[in-house]
Design brief:
Elements lengths: L12 H9 L13 E9 L1 E3 L4 E8 L2 E7 L7 E3 H6 L5 E8 L4 E9 L2 E3 L8 E6 L10 E3 L1 H4 L3 E5 L4 E8 L13 E5 L12 E5 L2 E7 L7 E3 H6 L10 E7 L5 E14 L2 E11 L9 E3 L1 H5 L1 E6 L4 E6 L13 H8 L3 H13 L7 H13 L3 H13 L3 H14 L6 H11 L3 H14 L7 H7 L5 H8 L6 H18 L3 H14 L32
Parallel strand pairs: 4-10, 5-9, 15-20, 16-19
Antiparallel strand pairs: 1-12, 2-3, 3-4, 3-8, 5-10, 6-7, 7-9, 11-12, 11-21, 13-22, 14-15, 14-18, 16-20, 17-18, 18-19, 21-22
Helix pairs in contact: 6-7, 7-8, 8-9, 9-10, 10-11, 11-12, 11-15, 13-14, 14-15, 15-16
Length: 535
């Protein structure tokens, strides 16, 4: 496995001179009339277990977290956002497709939708994504059509984004910083997304690339990786697990060594990139994600049809399995999402030595700050330990913040039944299923719990998707075993677990755990309008 730090070529002399000249105001006829108006300056914060960039806003007058996602082609709401606000979305008859599958597309009418200091009191109608492979940690996705209406500067290292409106700057050098800068022209994209496509050379092969601020890690599509001579089954490549986005399915994800990545005068050598095997939409070959953006400051000069990219230092592409200094800094500064992310890393031994005591310490901090996934995880752990009096309110508290979560209601149901509250368990689960618009996995498990289907029918539903059949069958058996345990039928539960020991050894992700532990890659964006989110 390659672990050497990226080596960079020096920028051409012309790029350096441009940087020096940028400090001379209005030096020639092309620039003397240029006025670059700073329209808005918004602070960015990292949210969710994947620590993805977001800004604060409001939806119908209530605080909202909004993902900054240049990689998606629409601005949309999450199902969790509308459910929490008692907004009833309506069917559009359309579907949206992403890397891992597809989802129904709903629509919702809002009284108000505001981002940062801007306040929009007009009524607005936005799309709502029906289902994703994990509950998104944000309420809305600000896609490329919203973000790139004007010139946009993204600086994840400084955790800020700025919007500019240029006047008479068509031929001016928009070098807003002192670092040497690559300037890449692009052709305006007149499709659904204005996100500019540009050429990047990977191992000497041309790749169609976009900058995807919603992707936690940079990645390539598997077909493109093959063209660049990258073998996901070859030396140095690692199968990391699965990742997802739109729909409830997941797709394979690898980390593979790459010799060179080049754009303009910048060359990055001996790195590792993510590779995704997707059955859904692609949209580009290479998606430069947040790891790239933490090492670069980028100006989307839409007015000039140019990208300005300045290298700030540090590793450009990271595997996403280790505890990086910026993550620890976020946790130490009181970011509850970062504290929860560290807890999961220490529990799972992902990128750090497994240390349950450290996991407990970070989980307690995240719970104290009200992080909903931390509350869900702690409630599940308490339930499994038999501490039902504390587990039930913990799970209930988490689900009040995550009403669209698809596994939490099953856990709360089992906890209620074990506590002797079967009638309340039934009522709560029925209410949770009515809130969830998508009738897909793991809805059949809820139907089994509610007596709407039997074991044979549940296993039949689990086997319908050929790609996911084994994982879903093992998951169904595990949840049925918990159901039998809760009702005192230890023999049936034991028989199911014996079957799982034989058939599910290679499908550990199917077994109910304290909380799902997805691959540390967010929901990839690209193609029609897939989502990025948490790993």
């Amino acid at each position: 496995m390659m672990t050497s730090a990226p080596l960079r070529s020096r920028f051409a002399r012309t790029a350096f001179l441009l940087c020096l000249l940028s400090g001379v105001a209005h030096a020639d006829d092309d620039t003397k009339h240029c006025t670059y108006i700073d329209v808005a300056d918004l602070p960015i914060r990292y949210t969710g277990e994947g620590l993805i960039p977001a800004v604060d806003g409001t939806i119908n007058g209530t605080p909202a977290v909004m993902l900054v996602d240049t990689g998606t082609s629409m601005t949309a709401l999450t199902m969790n956002a509308v459910t929490r606000r008692d907004i009833n979305p309506f069917m559009t008859g359309r579907w949206i497709e992403g890397f891992g599958g597809s989802s129904r597309l709903y629509s919702a009418r809002l009284k108000e939708f505001s981002v940062g200091p801007t306040h929009n009191a007009r009524r607005i109608e936005l799309n709502v994504i029906g289902s994703t492979s994990a509950t998104p940690p944000f309420d809305a996705i600000l896609g490329a059509p919203f973000l790139l209406q004007m010139d946009l500067e993204l600086d994840l290292r400084a955790k800020r984004m700025k919007f500019y409106r240029p006047r008479d700057c068509a031929k001016a050098s928009l070098l807003l910083w002192k670092e040497p800068t690559v300037v890449l022209p692009f052709e305006r994209n007149y499709g659904k997304s204005p996100n500019p496509h540009f050429t990047v050379m990977v191992n000497g092969k041309e790749m169609d690339a976009i900058i995807d601020s919603g992707a936690h890690r940079s990645f390539m599509m598997q077909d493109a990786a093959r063209r660049a001579g990258i073998d996901v089954n070859g030396p140095g490549a690692i199968r990391m697990g699965d990742t997802g986005g739109i729909g409830t399915d997941r797709v394979p994800y690898w980390i593979a060594p790459v010799k060179t990545v080049q754009f303009g005068d910048e060359t990055i050598r001996d790195v590792e990139l993510g590779v995704i095997g997707s059955a859904g939409s692609q949209g580009a070959d290479l998606f430069l994600g947040e790891d790239f953006l933490r090492a670069h400051r980028v100006l989307f000069a839409m007015s000039q049809e140019k990208l300005y990219i300045a290298y700030l230092g540090g590793d450009v592409f990271t595997r996403g399995t280790g505890l990086e200094p910026w993550m620890r800094a976020e946790a130490d500064d009181g970011n509850a999402d970062a504290q929860y992310a560290l807890a999961r890393m220490y529990y799972d031994g992902r990128g750090v030595a497994r240390d349950p005591a450290q996991g407990d310490a970070w989980l307690d901090k995240a719970v104290a700050r009200g992080q909903p996934n931390a509350n869900l995880l702690l409630g599940r752990r308490q339930m499994l330990a038999g501490r039902l009096d504390t587990a039930i309110p913990q799970l209930r508290r988490a689900l009040d913040q995550l009403p669209a979560d698809r596994l939490g209601p099953l856990w709360l149901y089992i906890a209620r039944v074990r506590h002797g509250d079967a009638a309340l368990a039934q009522t709560e689960l029925e209410a949770a299923m009515k809130q969830q618009k998508e009738d897909d996995w793991p809805a059949p498990i809820a139907d089994f719990y509610l007596g709407k289907t039997n074991a044979a029918r549940l296993l039949e539903e689990a086997g319908k998707d050929a790609q996911m059949a084994r994982t879903r069958t093992c998951m169904a058996q595990a949840y049925m075993a918990e159901w039998h345990d809760a009702r005192g039928d230890a023999a049936e539960a034991s028989a199911l677990r014996a079957t799982m020991r034989t058939n599910c050894a290679a499908a550990p992700a199917a077994v109910p755990k304290p909380a799902p532990a997805p691959v540390p890659v967010p929901l990839p964006t690209g193609g029609a309008a897939a989502l990025d989110g948490a790993p």
